[in-house]
Every structure is written in structure tokens, then in C-alpha cells.
Specification:
mainly alpha, 2 helices
């Protein structure tokens, strides 16, 4: 009996197979950042924040309050 590999098996691919979790839903960096910030999931506020995060990118989202 052969075991199925998770993903497509390629080292570098852009098909999104590494982002798919159980059930075929996308779980990217923005998802984890937003979910950790909001207590109630899913909510309208969390969904809006997730959309904004995906628009600007996970590296640039949530760093607006820091000043030197």
C-alpha cells in the first residue's frame, strides 16, 4: 500500500498545493496573523482584516503603529 504525498511533490511550485490544508481551504500567513488577533472567528471585522492583509501582504500588515 502506497502512502500519498502531501502537495504536488515539487520543491518549488506556484500551484498553491502547500497552502491547502485539510478541506482545501487556504491557510496563508495573513490567515494566521489575523486569526491570532481576533477573538471571534469568523466575524465581519476579521474577514475585512483578512482581505486588507492579503491586499498589502503579510509582511506589511499590522506594522503601522510602531514608531522609532
Amino acid at each position: 500500500m502506497k502512502l500519498k504525498k502531501k502537495g504536488c511533490g515539487k520543491k518549488e511550485c506556484d500551484c498553491g498545493c502547500d497552502k491547502l490544508a485539510k478541506g482545501g481551504k487556504v491557510r496563508d500567513a495573513c490567515y494566521t496573523k489575523v486569526k491570532s488577533r481576533y477573538k471571534v472567528w469568523p466575524s465581519a471585522y476579521a474577514s475585512g482584516a483578512l482581505a486588507k492583509c492579503r491586499k498589502v501582504g503579510a509582511k506589511n500588515w499590522g506594522n503601522g503603529g510602531k514608531k522609532d
